[in-house]
UniProtKB/TrEMBL annotation:
Function description: Catalyzes the ATP-dependent amination of UTP to CTP with either L-glutamine or ammonia as the source of nitrogen.
NCBIfam families listed in its UniProt record: PRK05380.1, PyrG
Organism domain of life: Eukaryota
GO biological process: 'de novo' CTP biosynthetic process; pyrimidine nucleobase biosynthetic process
Protein name: CTP synthase
GO molecular function terms noted in the UniProt entry: ATP binding; CTP synthase activity; identical protein binding
Organism: Malassezia cuniculi
One Pfam match: CTP_synth_N
Stretches assigned to coiled coil: none
Residue stretches of biased makeup (Acidic residues): 586-596
Length: 596
């Protein structure tokens, strides 16, 4: 196993995740199997309890792990399926050591950061790196380890020390380090001092950079590379520039062009000549598909405009998988995505008096939308605005996709304005609502927040009659069941659901869980495209295998829905062929109790 650590210096948030994923992709183009681990040096057990505006979206894995959004990057770039243990946090590793201590496993010893915690980190990495991540079931050859934060932070110290020891545990030719740094441009001059300081910090902790990947707005000048090489004590071929590019899909190529593959080949003794012809071919095919993807993306001149109505619009990372899924779908439709952001709060009546300019702008965007998406979220703020957006889409026949909370609000809107339940609401949003269309799921804890939602991969089984008319079912290739990842506490009230369904242009719950009592997919009949999903299909979208509900929205907005539905009947590939293994027992889902 070859371990590649990707660490960061100077500041965070400069694209370390993309560089880590791109490095992994380059190894894949050699035909090697690649896995990834993200280390997050915060005390939380996982990202599940953090607001999206804090650290960006919470990425949900097949096994229900609530992880950092970088795991989404790895899954998309490397086309792998990861598990909760691929994300290590300070909270998780301390919990493991403390549990062991309580069991008496340390046999009376004083338990310390070094060696007990640092050993636990190294054992964890070795164990998780060996877990297969694709259908082949083969043990990976390469493990990318991304260390969150910046080296030198007090938080990451135990991890840095563990990695320092790890290089000796696994041996020099099995361990390499990519340090991501920043070269700011000031007065037109590329400045190397922050990188020099960052590398000095790294070395003082016993880690040696093999590659210094520097983020800069423009390509590194030759003299700057020389200077960095000299002051950071590395060869010039070890200094790579990652300048701003039109799309992050270019980054693997940028690294490749500067010799990253050649460097690692020597440094890690990769013995590429000994590869099987099959893995060689697999790598070449992947590389070609990636090149095709980039060149097709560059030839997109026509646009498709989608309006995203959400409550976390202040931080784009809150919706990163949603944006990626829209991009993948747009690429399939040969259009360039133009995404407009609307803060759902600005669509509410009170905004008209409080901030009239925002209110009118938001409504202008909504009214001119060719497609509207309302993604997931938690809590009351902004939900009335989402309900207004869903109403607009329904009445004006604008293509609409509601995800999780977006699905729930669309059903509430329908209950209020079509079915006459004028006080319809959600127990989450108005606990005392007299007409609860959305209710708390009985098995969910009311006292603990972390890891207690209905999480992970679950099936939705299409109703029989949906085969005749449902667009979303055709987009899923006509399959009778689909598997997507869930993350929610509330659900459509199973007792209310039958009262909402029906009619020539009505709403139908056409996808349900295996017991048939959880409404998971809804669609309006005779609407250009109006779909709601309780799951988060964006999490399974891949550049070359766009998520069907997203494809439907974008295709409908671009006037290509029929063509794309036709295409999907032939082309759709479920992204979770291993799902039946991960989803152990249908009994864990939907207990029969309806009241607590
Ligand atoms: N807040 C809603 C629930 O818990 C929706 C969750 C979401 O959008 N992820 O059911």
């Amino acid at each position: 196993m070859k371990y590649i650590v990707v660490s960061g210096g100077v500041i965070s948030g400069i694209g370390k995740g993309v560089i880590a994923s791109s490095t992994g992709l380059l190894f894949k183009t050699l035909g090697l199997r690649v896995t990834a681990i993200k280390i997050d040096p915060y005390m939380n057990i996982d990202a599940g309890t953090m607001a999206p505006t804090e650290h960006g979206e919470v990425f949900v894995l097949n096994d229900g792990g609530e992880a950092d959004l970088d795991l989404g990057n790895y899954e998309r770039y490397l086309d792998v399926t990861l598990m909760r243990d691929n994300n290590i946090t300070t909270g998780k590793i301390y919990r493991e050591v403390i549990d062991k201590e309580r069991r008496g496993d340390y046999l009376g010893k004083t338990v310390q950061i070094v060696p007990h915690l640092t050993d636990a980190i190294q054992n964890w990495i070795e164990r998780v790196a060996a877990i297969p991540v694709d259908e082949s079931g083969d043990t990976p050859d390469v493990c990318i380890i991304e260390l969150g934060g910046t080296v030198g932070d007090i938080e990451s110290a135990p991890f840095v020390e563990a990695l320092r020891q790890f290089q000796f545990r696994v041996g020099h030719e099995n361990f390499a380090l990519v340090h991501v740094s920043l070269v700011p441009v000031i007065g037109g001059e590329q400045k190397t001092k922050p990188t020099q300081a960052a590398v000095r910090d790294l070395r003082s902790l016993g880690l040696v950079p093999d590659i210094i990947a520097t983020r800069c707005i423009n390509p590194l000048e030759r003299a700057v590379i020389q200077k960095l090489s000299m002051f950071c004590h590395v060869g010039p071929e070890q200094v790579l520039g990652v300048h701003d590019v039109s799309s992050t899909y270019h980054v693997p190529l940028l690294l490749e062009q500067q010799g990253m593959v050649r460097f690692f080949e020597r440094r890690l003794n990769l013995n590429l000549d000994q590869r099987s012809p099959e893995s060689r071919l697999r790598g070449q095919t992947l590389r070609q598909r990636w090149l095709d993807l980039i060149s097709s993306q560059e030839r997109l001149f026509e646009t498709v405009e989608i309006v995203l109505v959400g409550k976390y619009t202040s931080l784009q990372d809150s919706y990163i998988s949603v944006i990626k899924a829209l991009e993948h779908a747009s690429m399939r439709c040969r259009r360039r995505l133009v995404l407009k952001w609307v803060d759902s709060g600005d669509l509410e009546p009170k905004a008209e008096t409080e901030s009239p300019v925002k209110y009118h702008r938001a409504w202008e965007s909504l009214c001119s939308a060719k497609g509207i998406i309302v993604p997931g979220g938690f809590g009351h703020r902004g939900t009335e605005g989402m309900i207004n957006a869903a109403r607009w889409a329904r009445e004006q026949k604008v293509p609409f996709l509601g995800i999780c909370l977006g699905f729930q609000v669309a059903v509430i809107e329908y209950a209020r304005n079509v079915c006459g339940f004028s006080q319809a609401g959600s127990a989450e949003l108005e606990p005392e609502t007299p007409q609860p269309v959305v209710v708390y799921m009985p098995e969910i804890s009311k006292t603990h927040l972390g890891g207690t939602m209905r999480l992970g991969l679950r099936p939705s089984i299409f109703t029989e009659d949906s085969e005749e008319w449902s667009k979303i079912r055709r987009l899923y290739g006509g399959k009778s069941a689909v598997w997507e990842r869930h993350r929610h506490r509330y659900e459509i009230n199973p007792e209310m659901a039958p009262k909402l369904e029906g009619g020539r242009d009505g709403l139908y719950f056409i996808g349900k869980n295996d017991r048939g009592n959880r409404m998971q997919i809804a669609e309006l009949k005779n609407h250009p495209y109006f779909v709601g999903m309780q799951a988060h299909p964006e999490l399974a979208s891949r550049p070359l295998n766009p998520s069907p509900p997203f494809l439907g929205l974008v295709a409908a907005a671009a006037g290509q829905l029929d063509e794309q539905m036709e295409n999907q009947l032939r082309e759709y590939k479920p992204p979770h062929p291993e799902s039946a293994m991960v989803y152990e027992s249908p009994d864990v889902d939907a207990p029969e109790v309806t009241e607590e």
